[in-house]
Every structure is written in C-alpha cells, then in structure tokens.
Specification:
heterodimer, A: 683 residues, Cytochrome Bc1 Complex, Chain C, Immunoglobulin-like, 5-stranded parallel β-sheet, 4-stranded mixed β-sheet, 21 strands, 16% strand, B: 143 residues, mainly alpha, Four Helix Bundle (Hemerythrin (Met), subunit A), 4 helices, 70% helix
C-alpha cells in the first residue's frame, strides 16, 4: 500500500466526522461547518474588539493601564469581552487550520476548485497579522517578547531602511505613537481579512457564513464559560530594561516564534515560504485531467433558471437568448467555474428518461455521462437482475466504501454527484419495473463533496424543490443512504406489495439512512466533554507551556549602533576646470564625494571575541548610516567587556573604543550604543 | 391495443380555444406555441404507431409541458405570487396524469388519442379558467 498522506488524513477525518455526527447530530457537526465557524469566530472577535477599543488607550504606560482597567475595573463586561476576544481569536486560528487540512483531505482543491484554496492562503497570513498586532497592544511581557521577536523576524527581510528592532532596545527608544500605529494595524488587518474572506467564498453560491444556530449557541456558551473559568489577563508590564526569562505564549498565534531564536529569522521565513509555496502548488499537483464541463442544449432550454438556482459554484447564469427562439433567456455555463458535478442536470425539467425511445438531450447535460446512455445502461443492467429485491444503486463517486450487500442483485450507476440524478429516473426504474428498490448513496450526511447535491436530492424527493419526484412513487422503495449499512432496507423490499400503477401518493421524503445519534444523555455528556476539552485546551494553550527564552542566570547584551562613518574621499577645493564640468546649479567651491567607509565593529567579552562584523553604509550611493543590531545571550555576573569600532579608511587600529567591567544581573537587557558626540555608552 | 384506426391522429390532439387566453399577450403566445408543438409531436406519430412510439412521443410532450411549467413557475416565484403552490400543484397534477397515460400505453392496456386529447383540453380549459385567470387577476391588481 502506498503512503498517501491525503488518504490517511481523510480516514482520520471520516472517523472524527462520524463521531461528531453521532454526538452533535449532522446539522450541528462542527467538522462539517468549519468555514462558517471561522466566520462566526471572526464576528465574535470583531464585536468584542469594538467594545474593547472604546476603552483602550494608546501610549507606553497608558496602553497597559487601560487594558488592566478593562480587565479588572469592569470584570463582568470588559474582562469577559477581553477573554472572549482572545479565545475566539484562538478558535479562529484552530478552525482555519483544521478547515485547511479538511479541504485538503477531501480533495476539494483540484480543478476549478483551486480558487477557494488559493484565496484562502492570504487569509492565514492576515489572521496571524491581526492576532499578533493585538498581542502587541497590551504591552505586557508577552507583548514585549512579540515586539522584539517580530522585529528580529522582519529585520532579515529587505523591507526597512534600518532594523526596526532598534525601536525596542530600551524605554527611551519607544514612542507612544508606535501604539497608535499598532492600533491602526490591528484594525486594518482584520478589515483586509474580511475582504479576503469575502473573496474566498466568492465562487460559492449561497455560501454559508453562519453555523447552525444550536452550534453557535454552544460555541458562545463554551467561550463564556472559558472566559469566566480562565479569564484572559495581562502578564507583568513590559520593561525594556530587562528580558523576561519566562514568557507565557499564546501557542495558537505565536507557535513559530521560539523557532526564531532557534533557527534565526531566515530559517523561519524559509519554513513559512516553503510551506506556503507547497500549499499554493497543491491544486495542480499531481496533475489530473479536467472533465468536460456541462453543455447547454438550446433546443431544450427555455431559460427556466432551475440549473442556475441549483448550481453550487455559481457557474451558470441566465443570459439574453442567442438563437431564434422567442424566450428571454438561456442558461450559459462559465467553464472556469464549472466543476462538472452535474447538479444542473438533475435540476433540468427536460432531463427525464420518459422521453424518446432512442435519442434525447436534456437542456443541460454532462458530455461524459449523457442521460440517454445512462438510461440504456440501466435498462441493460437491470435486465440481468432477478427476484424481489432487485436494486438500482445510484452512487456518488465521492461516497465512502460501498456495502458489499448493495452489489448483490443490483445495478450500480455511478454519478459525479448524487445531485446529478433527475428524480424522474427513480420514477422510471420503479414504474417500468426495472427494479424493486432504489438506493441513492452519497457522501456522509451533510458532507456533500459538491456542497448541495445531497440537500437538493432530499428536497426534490420530498417535493420541496424542483423537479419534484412524482408523488405516487412509493417512497418506501427509495432509500437515501448517507451511510453504507442498508441491510434493513433491502430486507424489507421483498415484503412490500408490488408497485401499483394506480396508487396516488403524496409527495413525501424517502426512507433515510444516516448515522444514528446516540441517546440524548450520552450525547449531552459527549458534547460537554468535547467542548470542555477543546475549551480547556484553548485556555491552556493561550499561555502555556511558558517559553523560556533565557536561562534563569542569563542576561542579554545588545549592540545597537547607527552611525555615519567618515567619507571615503575627503572634501577638497575644486579646480576651475572641475567646476566648469559641473552643471551651473551644482557648482560649489568644495567637492565632497558622498561615499562613506563601511563600519567595522568588534565586541570582546572576558578576553574572547563575541562578535566582529563589517557593516556597509546604507543608501544607493553608500552615503547613509551603517547600522549594527546584534543580540547575545550571556551568563549573568561580572564580566570584562571591550567594544571597538573602525569608521574610517584605516586598515589597523580603531577609531573608537570603550572597555570596562560590568556586573550583569539575570534578565538584564544590557545595551551598548554609540553616539557620535559622546562615543560609546552602555547601560 | 385500443387505438386509432382511421387517421384520428391527423387531427389536432388539442385545439387552441379562446377561453384559454388569459389576456397577457406573451404568455398567451407561449401557450399557443406549446399547444402547436404538442400537436406537431402527436401528429408525427402517424396512424399506425406502436406502443413504444406512442410512449416516446408522449414522453416528449411531457418534457415540453414540464419545461414550459418550469418557466412559468419561475416567473411566479420571482413575483412572489401568492397562490404559487396551488398553481404548481395543478401543474404537477397534469404532469402526473400524462405519465399515467404513458404507463397505460406502455402496458399495452390501451391508448386512445381522442380520450387523451379530451383530457388535455379539459385540463387546459380548467387550468386557464381557474389558476391562470387568478394569476392574471393578481398581476393586474398588483400593477
């Protein structure tokens, strides 16, 4: 057996989905509405965030104080909403990641369905940016860790003129305006996220953006319970003079941050970039043939619009008539969106096997599975069946394994989606006595691969959606199977009275076979267990396990220098000839070439070189400042430090130097800076 | 099989009658088109058609009527027609009747085109007189 991760993942999801359907019931099954749960969490976060924003104050000290006031000063309003804000954000990350895995496992990413997958990828980034900027705003120890580490991560990208980490070397370097910027980003990123969420579902007709009401209530209840049991609180106030050794991390958002320390920023970006690239290529690898799209036959189309209404992917539209017929519109297929599910065929009023004996074409058909061929094939297969339990099985090609019992004395017709089956085929098989019973076997309940095939089929049979299954078709001979076990249905067929042509029935649903729920007390207990477990895990992972960024007896030395080195060529008076060569507006008496020397820095600790490096000046003409920003974790305690710098063209020796003994306390953030008028300074 | 023996099928299965008209020119035009198409289909059978051909032709007629109803129903749904469901039930009744007649022909227990024509005419007259007229009145009242 080949190792196919997708198949394994699918098996895991199938098992979990079945468990959740037994526990929550299929309509409330959270695994079948991960996308809409994501939307739901988004709205909870947005609503709670708007409230928090009213009381939030930007500023180095005011930010922390205002969050403390929200948390403790109005514990039952702001405190609870802050917790909701945090835990719903964590829930958002969790469902987004599971949603991604789920769609991959179910293979809903290939062919024309690439769009939702690809437009989903920027959502990942935006969710993280939204969350991370939020953590920043609190300005506690975790925020400080996030700020410094994000700085390190961003500084390896060629985005900024000078390292943004230098903003966080000490309290002096930090500006209150910075919090205004962060608050702006924390609002802008979610708004952008919303735009991308809208694009993400753009190709889904009637996209579901809210979970089942019951599930929504359960989720909010769980969040509230979590908010009360484990309220979200700030850690100690940020203090840039120290580097907190132990930080509580929200692992949903900051799970990759410890890697920055382990691998460096470049390694983390390589991991993220590689993962994104791999995800982005998945819809096209391995390459698969694309099935032909649905075709409209204008002689059989009067623009009734049923296919347009039923298409789950918005691939059909009604357009002005292009032929001689006097109808207003005709159905038109958008080949870029059509996934060849055939749901449109199942909706067409002319897709009926009762038509001409030899040839007929419905208003819309799939070229690879013509209805007339399907009818002839069915007639032929049914002729070989005998007895009183002859079955016709219409089976979705995405359905799980098939009960071997269903293969006995049965004609099996495979369809790209169960929604492709025109109800008249059921009528045809039974009224022409081709078989004694019909089984319509699709994906698991509420888990239709093509979104609406299952629902439309149930509604068509129950006379709630066009085209209706004829009322008089005996529903006890029709089974809708969202599970494989149908022994009882088959066993009962032989005992039924023969199909009578004279019966006048009423439209009603067919026998329905789905996973049985467990009894209510057991379900309630399991739901409590699942939600409690998930809530508990969220509460724990939101701060624990704590990350030890520094040993208990360690301190950090940071080298933070921004310095304009000496020009490479000294200024000199220009000769009249040189002056004449310059344009009149650029003529001046002294010529100063702009290029500067690179900056060479050495840091020595206890007689050993801790760092040495050459830093070029910035700017296109190498005329800007050279910047050094390096951090070193060192044991605390007294140590001899020497810092030396060469900022001129000399080949040996140094232009600036400072040495001395310093006593570093555990967690101390010891910063070495250089100012051209004062020389080196450290503290 | 009980069936035509004297060229009865050369006459129309169903004749357009003035009382079919509901006064909406477009809809009336569509109705007239449909009836002439039904007649053309039926006439193409000839007098010596076997059960298979009769059922096939009736199947086409059924599909054509279903298609027409689908369009009409869409218009009614778009307008939020108050008696939509009643109207649709009557459509379904005719479609069921045609399938019943096809079953009878298929089972070779008999197909009588005159009787079929009469049933169709009766249904159309009744449907135009009641449901379509009601729709017409509702449309006029709405405008």
């Amino acid at each position: 057996m080949t190792l196919n991760p997708r198949r394994w993942l699918r098996a895991v999801f199938d098992a979990l989905e079945a468990l959740c359907s037994r526990t929550f019931t299929a309509p409330w099954n959270p695994l079948l509405q991960l996308g809409s749960l994501g939307w739901f969490f988004y709205w909870v976060v947005a609503a709670s965030g708007i409230y928090l924003y009213v009381f939030f104050d930007t500023g180095i000290t005011r930010a922390y104080d205002s969050v403390e006031a929200i948390t403790h000063g109005q514990a039952w309003a702001g405190g609870v909403l802050r917790s909701l804000h945090r835990y719903a954000s964590d829930g958002l990350v969790a469902v987004v990641l599971i949603h991604l895995l789920h769609e991959f496992a179910l293979d809903r990413i290939h062919g024309k369905r690439w769009f939702a997958w690809i437009t989903g990828l920027p959502l990942l980034g935006l969710v993280y940016v939204s969350g991370i900027t939020g953590y920043w705003l609190v300005w506690d120890a975790a925020a400080q860790y996030v700020a410094v580490t994000t700085g390190e991560l961003l500084d390896v990208l060629p985005l900024f003129g000078e390292p943004i980490s230098r903003n966080f070397v000490n309290e002096v370097s930090l500006s209150s305006r910075f919090f205004t910027l962060m608050a702006f980003m924390h609002i802008a990123a979610p708004l952008l996220l919303l735009l991308f969420m809208w694009i993400h579902i753009h190709r889904h007709a009637a996209a579901r953006v809210l979970p089942a009401r019951g599930l929504g209530i359960l989720v909010v209840g769980s969040l509230l319970a979590l908010a009360i049991v484990v309220p979200a609180v700030s850690q100690v106030r940020a203090n840039l003079d120290i580097v907190p050794a132990v930080v509580g991390l929200d692992w949903f958002y900051l799970g990759a941050y410890p890697l920055v320390q382990k691998w460096g920023g470049v390694g983390v970006w390589e991991l993220l970039g590689g993962t994104l690239l791999l995800l982005g290529l998945l819809p096209w690898f391995p390459r698969r043939p694309t099935p032909p799209v649905a075709e409209v036959n204008l002689l059989n189309c009067n623009g009734c619009g049923r296919c347009v209404a039923d298409c789950p992917f918005g691939a059909l539209s009604l357009e002005p008539r292009s032929d001689w017929q006097k109808y207003a519109g005709e159905a038109v297929v958008n080949a870029d969106r059509c996934v060849s599910c055939g749901i449109c065929v199942g909706s067409c009023p002319t897709a009926t096997p009762f038509r001409s004996a030899l040839q007929f074409t419905a208003g819309i058909e799939l070229p690879q599975l013509r209805l007339v061929a399907m009818r002839e094939q069915l007639k032929e297969s049914c002729a070989a069946l005998a007895g009183h339990d002859r079955l016709v099985v219409f089976r979705c090609e995405h359905a799980g394994s098939m009960d071997p019992e269903l293969r006995r004395n049965a004609a099996v017709q495979q369809l790209p989606c169960i929604g492709m089956l025109p109800p008249s085929f059921i009528d045809f098989v039974l009224s022409r006595h081709l078989a004694d019973g019909i089984v319509i076997a699709g994906c698991a309940e509420n888990a239709c691969f093509h979104r609406f095939g299952q629902r439309w089929t149930e509604e068509r049979i129950a006379g709630q959606r066009d085209p209706w299954l004829r009322a008089r078709v005996p529903r006890e001979r029709v089974a809708l199977s969202w599970v494989s076990d149908l022994g009882a249905f088959r066993g009962g067929l032989a005992a039924l009275p023969p199909v009578s042509r004279a019966d006048k029935g009423v439209a009603m649903p067919a026998a329905r076979f789905a996973l049985r729920h467990w009894p209510l007390p057991l379900r309630a207990a399991c739901m409590a267990l699942v939600l409690g477990g998930l809530g508990g895990a969220t509460g724990v992972l939101a701060t624990r396990p704590a990350w030890h960024q520094l040993g208990q007896q360690q301190a950090v030395i940071r080298l933070s220098i921004r310095h304009a080195t000496a020009p490479k060529v000294a200024c000199k008076p220009l000769t009249p000839q040189e002056l004449a060569e310059l344009k009149p507006n650029m003529r001046r008496e002294v010529g100063c070439p702009r290029e500067r020397w690179p900056l060479y820095v050495e840091l020595e600790r206890n007689g050993e070189i801790l760092y040495r490096g050459t830093h070029p000046p910035s700017g296109l003409w190498n005329d800007g400042t050279a910047t050094v920003f390096e951090s070193f974790r060192v044991p605390a305690g007294p140590q001899q430090l020497v810092v030396r710098m060469r900022d001129s063209g000399r080949e040996q020796g140094f232009d600036e130097m400072q040495s001395g003994t310093v006593d570093l306390k555990p967690e101390q953030n010891f910063v070495i800076e250089f100012h051209s008028n004062q020389g080196f300074s450290w503290r | 099989m009980k069936g035509p023996d004297n060229g009865a099928q050369s006459v129309s299965l169903i004749e357009w009658r003035d009382e079919f008209s509901i006064g909406l020119p477009d809809v009336d035009h569509e109705h007239r088109e449909m009836i002439s198409m039904i007649n053309a289909l039926h006439q193409s059978l000839g007098s010596d058609a076997d059960a298979g051909r009769i059922v096939a032709a009736l199947g086409e007629i059924h599909a054509r009527i279903a298609l027409h109803f689908a369009l009409e129903e869409r218009e009614m749904q778009k307008l939020d027609y108050i008696a939509y469901l009643d109207h649709k039930q009557d459509h379904e009744r005719l479609l069921d009747d045609i399938l019943d007649i096809m079953d009878t022909a298929e089972a070779k227990t008999g197909y009588d085109p005159v009787n079929f024509g009469r049933r169709l005419s009766k249904w159309f007259t009744e449907h135009f007189r009641t449901h379509d007229a009601r729709l017409h009145r509702w449309l006029v009242g709405r405008n």
